[in-house]
Design a protein that fits this description.
Distance between the termini: 71 Å
Radius of gyration: 26 Å
Strand order of the largest sheet: 1-2
Helix content: 55-70%
Shape: elongated
Number of helices: 8
Structural class: mainly alpha
Strand content: under 5%
């Protein structure tokens, strides 16, 4: 074999090795982005169910509280709502003890993107999308912490839980993760299932 053929063979092997090394070093990025996209798509697929002709409809009390808090912030930025008559109705309560950082960030985003003049529909839309977006953003530091502690593979495998919305799927997943293990009948010890430890 000639020297030129050997050099081509070696350079091809080196380039294949560098591509493999590059893929091994960075495989987690596209996987993490794909998981985050799937998580966002899963949570936003029913978005139209919460949008009505008159605005938006929220599920649960917390969403309405944050909507009131953010609406107040949009009118009085950066001051938070000092009193909320709907919390602890009919007496009301001081609303300053609740988590207002979320509301401050969302109100700041709405003010910046609407140039200080947001419409009611835009406020409602941003409030509907804000929680799923915050969840997606929380994946990044969660992955980095898990990768530091357990490695990249287990950290990516641990990202499957937030991918599934709550409800029947989480019950199915819980039963899959914590299978009942029993001992043979000849054992005199009482068997304990790992699922029973959860309840």
């Amino acid at each position: 074999m000639s020297n030129a053929a050997k050099q081509r063979s070696e350079s091809q092997t080196e380039s294949e090795g560098s591509v493999l090394a590059y893929a091994k070093q960075w495989y987690h990025v596209p996987v993490l982005v794909a998981l985050m996209a799937f998580m966002l798509a899963t949570r936003l697929r029913a978005l139209s169910n919460f949008q009505t002709d008159g605005g938006v409809t929220f599920r649960g009390n917390d969403a309405w509280y944050h909507f009131r808090e953010t609406s107040y912030l949009l009118d009085n930025f950066p001051s938070t709502m000092p009193f909320d008559p709907w919390t602890n109705y009919p007496a009301g309560t001081s609303a300053e003890q609740f988590g207002t950082l979320f509301d401050q960030i969302v109100a700041g985003f709405i003010l910046l993107t609407s140039f200080g003049n947001p419409s009611g529909e835009y406020i409602g839309f941003v409030m509907l999308v804000a929680a799923p977006v915050f969840l997606i953003l929380a994946v990044i530091p969660t992955y980095l912490i898990a990768a530091r502690v357990a490695g990249r593979g287990p950290a990516l495998a641990g990202r499957h839980r937030p991918c599934t919305p709550s409800g029947d799927g989480s019950q199915l997943q819980r039963s899959w993760l914590f299978r009942t293990t029993t001992r043979p009948k000849s054992s005199s010890r009482r068997s304990v299932s790992s699922a029973s430890l959860l309840h």
